[in-house]
Design goal:
It contains seven helices and no strands. The protein is mainly alpha-helical and 217 residues long. It has one domain. α1 packs across α3 and α3 packs antiparallel against α7. It starts with a helix and ends with a helix.
Length: 217
């Protein structure tokens, strides 16, 4: 996690201070992230949500770095452990709810009662909505941790299988060992895409939760 934080600082310190008219590689990368998340927050929350822009962008880069670092052999992957992702999701969930109560006071509870619903079913609907609302904070972290862990586990199994075949000492089996080796290569490329996509989905859902706390859907 410290390595990810360090690389995050490195990306932002490269070319950014100079404000180059023709950006370098890292400045182009940062500007692309900047524009994407600026538009994401503006479209989902509005201008008042821009105060969360530094947090959301930092969260994405941090998670993406953690996910990608995990593809380097012998490197520990914090986001494959639910304790890390669950800690992040619960913190965001608590923060969003506190902000909802600060903005809307007790009226924030009205989000658990759909408009136009029969009064006689209110107790049941409120219970369902409450459970669904609480599940958001849990599922947000579980989704990220489970996806990263599943991909790494699959890659480890195929790599181990390929290594055993390549070192079997039998020519035919050694030759066939290149098949899972190539499969492992393509899975690695797929996992690189999944690493970035899952970080983006985590931030997208965070933006949606913040939007609910501000606009009270």
């Amino acid at each position: 996690m410290l390595l990810g934080t360090g690389y995050f600082a490195f990306i932002y310190s490269t070319n950014i201070e100079n404000g180059l008219i023709i950006p370098g590689r890292y400045q182009t990368l940062v500007e692309t992230w900047y524009e994407s998340f600026h538009d994401l927050i503006k479209d989902n929350i509005g201008a008042e949500g821009m105060r969360f822009f530094p947090f959301i962008l930092t969260l994405f880069i941090f998670l993406a770095m953690m996910n990608l670092f995990g593809l380097v052999p012998y490197v520990f992957t914090p986001t494959s452990h639910v304790a890390v992702t669950f800690g992040l999701s619960i913190s965001i969930f608590i923060g969003a709810n506190l902000m909802g109560f600060v903005n809307h006071k007790l009226n924030f509870i009205s989000m658990f009662m759909p408009n136009g619903a029969p009064l006689g079913m209110s107790w049941f609907l409120v219970l369902i909505e409450f459970i669904s609302h609480v599940a958001k904070g849990i599922i947000l972290g579980l989704r990220l941790g489970a996806n990263i862990m599943a991909g790494h586990l699959l890659l480890a199994i195929i790599s181990s299988f390929a290594w055993q075949m390549l070192t079997s000492g039998i020519f035919a089996i050694t030759l066939l060992g290149f098949v899972p080796l190539f499969i492992g290569f393509f899975i690695t490329v797929l996992e690189m895409a999944v690493a970035v996509i899952q970080a983006y989905v985590f931030c997208l859902l965070t933006v949606i939760y913040l939007s609910e706390a501000i606009h009270l859907h």
